[in-house]
Amino acid sequence: MGEILVVVEHRQGEVREITEQMLWKANDLCEKHAHTLTAVLLGGKDEPFIQDLTERADKVIAVEDDRLKDFNGDIYKEILYRLIQENHPLLTLIGHTPWGMDFGPALSVKTGLPIATDCVDILLEDGGPRVIRQIYSGKIFSRVSLKKSDGYLVTVRSGAFPADKVGERKAEVIKLEIPADLPEVGKQFLAFEEAGAGDVDITQADLLVSIGRGIGEEDNVAAMKAFAELMGGVLSCSRPVVDKNWLPKYHQVGTSGKSVKPKVYLAFGISGAFQHVAGITGAGCVIAVNKDKKAPIFRVADYGVADDLFKIVDALKEKVSA
Amino acid sequence: MDIIVCVKRVPQTQEVDLEINPQKNDVRKDMLAYVINEWDNYAIEEAVLLKEKLDGTAIAITVGDEDDEEVLRRCLAMGADKAIRIDPGGRILDPYIISRILAAVIKGLNHDLVLTGVQADDLNDGAIPSMLAEHLGLTHATVVNSVEPAEKGATIRVELEGGTDEVSKIKLPALLSIQTGINEPRYVSIMGIRKAAKKELNVMKVEELGLSEEELTPFTTVEEIYLPPETEGAEMIEGDPGTVAETILRILKEKGVSR
């Protein structure tokens, strides 16, 4: 019997969904292998969600300090290092998010405990954990073992597990002071800033005509915008289109953009990276057009067309205008 | 400002049918075309932009075989002053070993800033930036989409979820992992690469770095790779474009979004 530690990710007084997903998986592993579940909360004084955590863990360790109200990877790493040294958890789960990517691998080096990152499943077996990862843009799955050790770190991909509350647990809350001898940190939080709003709101559209890398060149963007309007829809896009400055950020669907919920999502030339797919889980129906019949988008779409998007667009234009 | 940029050459796997190798621990790579990892392309551009603004040097580093020098030549053509390749000599690599190797080399070089991509397109670990920073004892930030030099440091933006950025001040020296879209990477011509052939490209062997066997033991081992399990997936619409268009319009009508 060992301990599974979940590092709580939260922002501005709210728990992030990744935390609930990690708690779901930790509960699953604890039930299968008779381990205990500890949630570690590094935050400000009396974070409002602490009560919810007590219903999903056997123990909540809360380190409360104003310096922890906003995330700082250096401080997270230091405190977690000490907690791991004292408690020797078998497994520590961290979100594979911008924050988890910041301190997770560094924590692995500092503790000497092996880490596997961006995992979509975790198997605990004799001889240590194995994880499942998706590589080559999700076209291949990989089963990975970790170097034999007393403890292991795993970062979990967003959306890999459900967020539902499961298990019957009741945690005692152990409040700890922030260590007095923290080393000086080199990074200082200033502010959160939201991306600007635009002239369209893709979260409100019933029909989204969405374009990705397969659009090829900038000149095609205006044509696709006209096509979206012809269809009575709104133009949206995946990350590469925004990275190339072909459309402003407020058109972007996905983890770092917007989550959308149209009745129909028409995806043209979008391969379906998981960051993009995470933004369309609320869509009523997804129709994907992509030349690559193995594109991961076809695994989540309701309907697929493995063909040149421009041929399909031209045919649609012709039928609609007729 | 002396800047080190870590880059990787990766196979292009979009619109390609991947085959699994006989050992089942990687895909067959003999038929694949290679490019610079997309994130690293933004990182090298950012390094060159900062160098142009503030003077100093930019050095591009990769851990790889002779074929991987292609991406270093590309970096030199983009404006890096010097390049280093560390030959792993057939070793099986993982993020831990690569970060150890990079750290051993970077320790011996002047650096105000170490830049990497957020992750590599092929294996998606996203682990090296944070590991490398820890080996080097550097302050760091990951998923950075803006760097503005300021007194004794820089103001940076970290891209979080849902269009939120986290703005921070960071002291130098530091390591930053660069997100795509931070800049517009310059075009590299064949002529440009030829011209840059005169620039220094040094090759080192892992054995020269004085790393212990422990430091060169991977944290992770690929046991087996496999194709994604067949799920229900999309219902494929077959036929010529006209037929496909009719089917799509029928679906739009059913869903109540047709004109």
Question: In words, what does this structure look like?
Answer:
- The complex is a heterodimer of chains A (322) and B (259).
- Chain A is an alpha/beta fold.
- Chain A has two domains: 3-176, Rossmann fold; 202-321, TPP-binding domain (Rossmann fold).
- Chain A is built from nine helices and 17 strands.
- Chain A has helices at 17-33, 50-54, 73-87, 98-111, 219-230, 239-243, 274-277, 297-300, 309-321, and strands at 3-7, 10-11, 14-15, 36-43, 59-64, 91-95, 115-125, 128-135, 140-146, 152-156, 172-176, 187-194, 207-211, 234-237, 264-268, 285-289, 303-305.
- In chain A, the strands form three sheets. Chain A has a nine-stranded mixed sheet with strand order 9-8-7-10-6-1-4-5-11, with helices on both faces. Chain A has a five-stranded parallel sheet with strand order 14-13-15-16-17.
- In chain A, strand 15, helix 7 and strand 16 (285-289) form a beta-alpha-beta unit.
- The model of chain A has no long low-confidence stretch (mean pLDDT 95).
- In chain B, the strands form two sheets. Chain B has a nine-stranded mixed sheet with strand order 9-8-7-10-6-1-4-5-11, sandwiched between helices.
- Chain B has 259 residues and is an alpha/beta fold.
- In chain B, 46% of the residues are buried.
- The interface between A and B is large, with 105 and 87 residues.
What summary fits the major beta sheet of chain A?
9 strands, mixed
CATH class of chain B: Alpha Beta
Shape of chain A: elongated
Largest pleated sheet of chain B: 9 strands, mixed
CATH architecture of the largest domain in chain A: 3-Layer(aba) Sandwich
Label the overall shape of chain B.
globular
